[in-house]
Amino acid sequence: MKKILFIGAGSMAEALMQGWIKQKVFTAQELYVTNRSDKERLQFLHSTYGVNYRVDGAIYMQADLIILAMKPKDAIAAMQELQPKISKHTAILSILAGITINTITEKLGLRPVARVMPNTSATIGMSASGIAFNGKVSIEHRTMFLQLLEAVGSVIEVEEDQLHAVTALSGSGPAYIYYLMEAFERVGTEVGLTKDTVRLLMTQTLAGTAEMLKQSADEPDVLRRKVTSPGGTTEAGIKALEQYQFNEAITACIKEAEARSRALAKST
Ligand SMILES: NC(=O)C1=CN([C@@H]2O[C@H](COP(=O)(O)OP(=O)(O)OC[C@H]3O[C@@H](n4cnc5c(N)ncnc54)[C@H](O)[C@@H]3O)[C@@H](O)[C@H]2O)C=CC1
Ligand SMILES: O=C(O)[C@@H]1CCC=N1
Q1: Which residues line ligand 2 (CB under 6 A)?
Q2: Which CATH number fits domain 173-266: 1.10.3730.10, 1.10.10.10, 1.10.3720.10, 3.40.50.300?
Q3: How far apart are the first and last CA of the chain?
Q4: Which residue from 10, 15, 83, 168 lies 20 to 30 Å from 244 (Cα-Cα)?
Q5: Ligand 1: residues whose CB is within 6 Å?
Q6: What pLDDT digit, counting tens, does each position of 3-45 carry?
Q7: Which helix (H) or strand (E) holds 202?
């Protein structure tokens, strides 16, 4: 029986443990979770998923894999606390935005580290994750790390530096789409539909559009033109997007998020 230890019990830790249990990658009994102080949160995870939340010194020492899942601002203190408690050989999977593999091995010692940027859709097996490894990761470790991420969605290997871009795009991406949906629902009710009807129409539109992009050989602009009749509604809508600087807004959004990821890396 494996021992997989989560340090940090927030929404991303929950998404991963939920996905792994659902996909039968690990049993709940193999998962251990700890956080800084919120015992109620640990009890909630225990009663909801059956994961262990009583973590003694032996569990730290025997852990096969440790998942770093605290907020980046808490990472240094958490790693300093962790270092004396864990075995020299334990592999680390970090989901921390902006915290480099170098910082992790500086604080925890040279060991196999995978740095991953998943997203919260891991909860339903639909994460899009980027992953980078250090030189200590063996072929067996690599296979294991990739399987863990494949169990909760799709995963693509990138250079570590590219994880800043992955974070800005797919790590934060669900929030942008939820924000878009909030806007659709708000305006949808203004033009005469109920919120429920807008939700139904637009979730299917998002899913259908994503599937078209996956299945079609056409580029997005070609697919867009197929929707856009001359003098029609789409053209009017797109003109409004252009007038309100849609492209500038998206560019600023991704660049600000990427810069924030880099700033986080610098400040630790
Ligand atoms: N929420 C998201 O969509 C994504 C988050 N991430 C990354 O995942 C990490 C966690 O994010 P969330 O789950 O959203 O955060 P969260 O705020 O929901 O949870 C953070 C957890 O870490 C715990 N913690 C803080 N200091 C600790 C310490 N010293 N020892 C043990 N536990 C400690 C807190 O008690 C809390 O349970 C962050 O580093 C973030 O960059 C990565 C991809 C997506
Ligand atoms: O907002 C954040 O910093 C994290 C990283 C990607 C999604 N959430």
Answers
A1: 97, 167, 171-172
A2: 1.10.3730.10
A3: 35
A4: 168
A5: 7-13, 34-36, 38, 41, 69-72, 74, 77-78, 81, 95-97, 117-120, 171
A6: 999 999 999 999 999 999 998 999 999 999 999 999 999 999 9
A7: helix 195-215
